[in-house]
User: Which sequence fits this backbone?
């Protein structure tokens, strides 16, 4: 007689593999949506930079002390990508540690957005650069916050 109770069915193995690939708590679909949110936020920042910066003749720059830093597409993409990945990492940690990660993550994300606006709205940039930089912050937030919040465990 063969004992079939110890055998794992092929469908069960596929589900287990999906959980491993997705990082345990999220499904493959949620992982794909999170990737799309991070990439979408990065693209939205680049589109905002392109339309409001070079296309309109505004040379984006930020003054830090006596140094003037020009804001180019590499800087914009890197900042948006790092922000998106950090937001995803925070969401993953919250999903493992607290009961309502979606609400907590959204509140934290909104607080981080408000704090991040201090940079472009503060001293160190001309008015056109301030407006464009603020627009980029808001564009990233408009894609990233709802995009990642939808994937969070409730």
Assistant:
């Amino acid at each position: 007689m063969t004992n079939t109770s110890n055998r794992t069915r092929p469908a069960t193995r596929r589900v287990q593999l999906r959980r491993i690939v997705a990082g345990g708590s999220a499904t493959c679909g949620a992982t794909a949506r999170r990737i799309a949110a991070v990439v979408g936020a990065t693209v939205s920042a680049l589109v905002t930079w392109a339309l409001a910066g070079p296309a309109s003749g505004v040379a984006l720059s930020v003054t830090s002390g006596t140094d003037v830093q020009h804001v180019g597409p590499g800087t914009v993409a890197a900042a948006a990508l790092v922000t998106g990945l950090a937001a995803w990492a925070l969401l993953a940690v919250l999903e493992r540690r607290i009961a309502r990660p979606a609400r907590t993550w959204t509140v934290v994300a909104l607080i981080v957005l408000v704090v991040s606006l201090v940079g472009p709205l503060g001293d160190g940039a001309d008015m056109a650069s301030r407006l464009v930089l603020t627009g980029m912050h808001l564009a990233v937030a408009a894609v990233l916050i709802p995009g990642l919040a939808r994937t969070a465990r409730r």
About this structure: The longest strand covers residues 61-64.
